[in-house]
Each structure stands twice: as C-alpha cells, then as structure tokens.
Amino acid sequence: MAETGPNVSSHLKPLESNPTKAMTEAKQRMALFPQPSRVIFPHENLWVPIVIVNENIHILPGVPKLFEALLTGYGRYLIKGDKFVRKFVKTFYPETFIAPILTEAQEKVKDFGVKIGSYPETTEDGKYAVVVSFLGKGNAKVSEVVEKISKEVSKQVDGVIID
Question: Between 47 and which of 5, 11, 96, 102 could a Cys-Cys bridge form, CB atoms 3.0 to 4.6 Å apart?
Fold first, then answer.
C-alpha cells in the first residue's frame, strides 16, 4: 500500500493561495510512494525527492534539469563498497545447447554470489550469437572465481572472452 512520503507535503508549494479540495487531493496522490521505500532529498532547494524502493530501484523525475540536480546531490548518500566484477563470453552455439553448461557453472559459483546470464543477439553480419555474462561483487576471491568460471565456460562453448 502506498503512503505519502515523509516531508513531501512540506516541500510542495501550492500553485494557488487557496487550493480546492480536489487540488489538494490530487497533489497528495502525486506524493504517494511504494512501501517500503526510502525518500531522500539530496538537493536542499528542490521539493523533488529520489525514492528508493527495495534498496535497488531509484525513482527520479523525467525533467532533465531536476534529474541532473538530484544526481549531483545524491553522491554524498552513496555508500562506498565492493566493486562489481564482470566478464563476458561470446559464443555462436545456440542458447539451448549452452543452457546445461551454464546451469552447472552457476551451481559451482552460487556460494560466491556470482550470477551468470545469457543474452542472445544478432551480429552485424546477421549471425546468431549468445553473450554470457558473469557478474560478481566483492573481494579478490570473487574476482578470481569470475575469472576462472568465465575461462571454463569459454572453453566448453567454443567461446571468446570479450571485455
């Protein structure tokens, strides 16, 4: 259930000195956010917040100047942490052929938080290809695991590691 975000109403400036009940209700509906969510006002001169849902979905305004101003101020809220490590392998084998190989590889690396995904594509010359992504977040051990599993899979699918 959505609720009015904290402090949003205090940031909204009335368009008229005597808004009607319908205008007030409409304004309050515009301030509804999914719950649970976190509301951040990174720019002290703007009434528009950044709404963060599930700690990974950031809702920002579509107006370029507001978007840019909010992103500029948002940097101080970011938590520095582990970096992402990603490798890609490109193969011309069909996804159905490589699926069991990727399932086995995913099982090997699941305890390290490494995610494996496959993405079919058509090359510029019209050939069918699949790009396999290996993504991990963390320390040197995770980087080592991503490096190792991408090389293993590359050999199994006749692939090429791309950066």
Answer: 11
CA 153 – CA 146 distance, rounded (Å): 11
Calpha distance 13→8 (Å, rounded):
10
What pLDDT was estimated at residue 5? 52
Distance between CA 4 and CA 27 in Å, rounded? 10
Please tell me whether the peptide bond between 49 and the residue prior to it is cis, using omega within 30 degrees of 0.
no
pLDDT in tens, 22-39: 888 887 777 778 888 889
Domain boundaries, the chain: 3-77, 83-162
DSSP letter for each residue of 56-115: TEEE--SSHHHHHHHHHHHGGGPPP-PEEEEEEEEE-S-HHHHHHHHHHHHHHHGGGT-E
Fold of 83-162: Alpha-Beta Plaits (3.30.70)
- Say whether 44 sits in a helix, a strand or coil: coil
Two tokens at 44?
């002290």
pLDDT tens column, 44-84: 888 888 999 987 888 988 899 999 999 988 888 877 777 88
Q: Which of 2, 69, 82 is CA-nearest to residue 42?
A: 69
